[in-house]
Amino acid sequence: MRLSKLLTSALLAGAMMGAGVFAVSAQDELEEYKRMLADPFANPGWLYADEGEALWVTPSGPKNATLEQCDLGLGAGVVEGAYAQLPRYFADADRVMDADTRIAWCRQELQGIPFADSAKTAFSKRGKKSEMEQLTVYVASKSEGMDINPPMDHPKEQEARDIGEALFYRRSAKLDYSCSTCHGVTGSRIRLQELSNLTDQAETGAVMATWPTYRVSHESVRTMQHRMWDCNWQMRMPNLQFGSEAAVALIAYLNDTGRGSPMASPGLKR
Amino acid sequence: MAQAKPRVKLQKTATVGEVVVIKSLISHAMESGQRKDSAGAVIPRQIINKFECTFNGQPVFSCDIEPAISANPYIEFTAKVNESGKFAFTWTDDDGTVTTSEQEITVQ
Amino acid sequence: MKMNIKIAAASVLMACLSPAIAGEVDPARVEAVVQASFGELTPELQALIDQDETMKECSLHRDLPPSEVADAIIARETASIVYPADGVLMGDWKVAIKESNNGFGWRLGDDPAKTVGGNCTACHQLVSTEVAYGNLGPSLMGYGQGQTVDDELIKATYNKIYNSQSVLACSQMPRFGATGFLTPEQIRDYVAMLLSPESPVNQ
Description:
The complex is a heterotrimer of chains A (270), B (108) and C (203).
Chain A: H1 5-12, E1 17-18, H2 26-38, H3 45-56, E2 88-90, E3 95-97, H4 99-111, H5 115-121, H6 131-141, H7 155-168, H8 179-183, E4 189-190, E5 193-194, H9 201-209, E6 213-215, E7 220-222, H10 224-234, H11 245-257, E8 267-269
Parallel strand pairs in A: 6-8
Antiparallel strand pairs in A: 2-3, 4-5, 6-7
Helix pairs in contact in A: 3-6, 4-6, 7-11, 10-11
Chain B: E1 7-9, E2 13-14, E3 18-25, E4 48-55, E5 58-64, E6 74-81, E7 85-93, E8 98-107
Parallel strand pairs in B: 2-8
Antiparallel strand pairs in B: 1-3, 3-6, 4-5, 4-7, 7-8
Chain C: H1 2-17, H2 27-35, H3 43-49, H4 53-60, H5 67-79, H6 93-99, H7 151-162, H8 184-195
Helix pairs in contact in C: 6-8, 7-8
């Protein structure tokens, strides 16, 4: 997690409280605040993971079933380690899917909740939490410490990754930007926000390992599907659809580039 | 919609007189009452306005919480323990709802 | 420009190391994926995801076009430049200085009545008093200092902002005028911001 100085001072007025026997100088308070933020326990993302864990075993939807039989790639019902090995090709759906897409698919097949409904409510808004965010961060949290290692054996997995790479360099829309415009070099910065070089293994791995993340400015967990939508929106593109082939391809490319870094989700970001 | 239980982090054992760190995290939107909806109407305030901690029934720490505190409040504090017992935590919502949690500690 | 050379060097290095090179995936397949991933679109929104010739070539060559392609891009983009009807290419730097910090406009949901900002500070340093600037583009602080602000310089500056690829093929800088992001009248305000001796950029 990297926070800009600007963010740190902006948040100083905000969320955190600490009582007790700490020194009162401003610098000490700032260091204390940073320590509290770095404490994984302080991450509200864990509350979402708890909620996702409860949802996973709760009967729901027209079929009144749980998600416990969902096959995330490692066999029906295996949640641990699954996120680190996504996206991957699923024969039953005959397509490559990332975690979000696969969970939405399981909700449809096992619980009878239409994929389109999951897609529509996937991104929480004020006052309306998203079950998809809770489920996906729960699944991701169960890959903590495991290396990002999506399979690349099936031709469709390779194709998804290659399409993702082509999309990464695709210039379009009113600003003529591609992903590589901002994310193609180390050391780039837009305003005061550092930009990760997403063609570099270490920088990409550090990013992909910490998504899903709790986004403080959104007061919610966000997943990679949201990040892809959000980037597109900022780049003056139309709405990138949840679970679309382009979104999954980009995620496949990024996870392949970040391969080898250990998962650390939920992350904590601005 | 699932609502997570509050998370509390507290060591299970301590020595007499040890100062322990207690961390708490609770899910709550903490609507400040400052925001307006798309129609321009003020969204009513609804926050957790009080947090209390007792040990074996005795008050240890409490605070009044204001709208400046953002969603999913994280509260961390210390307590000196001299005997074994139970910490009880209470979060009080503006609408009167009280959420509680308890955790035991063995002190030798 | 320094930043573009840095990007260019990094891209060359990257092209040597990465296994998949530009063109390995059938571009038609990529386009089909794009078309299928944005749902139902109005013609206006459809135009956003469709690429023009220059975008296609820059994407294919990952912004390092061979010289004939680059020359063709520069010629094509130069031909696209439109000037304000009255031919005045220096506007009001006071407006532009304010809008250089404005990142608003053209996103889905942005109020079309509000001014679209050039958002220069997102990528460029402009004035010594603003520390929250990006480094994706070179510093423009003092751009007009020590320069003879003649018609040639004014026109070159206008051209660069209107269409950066009339100067550098596959530049990462948006073709603000050519894509319609900013109007010719807005662009001349930014020209003044960069060249006017009174502008904070040149203080």
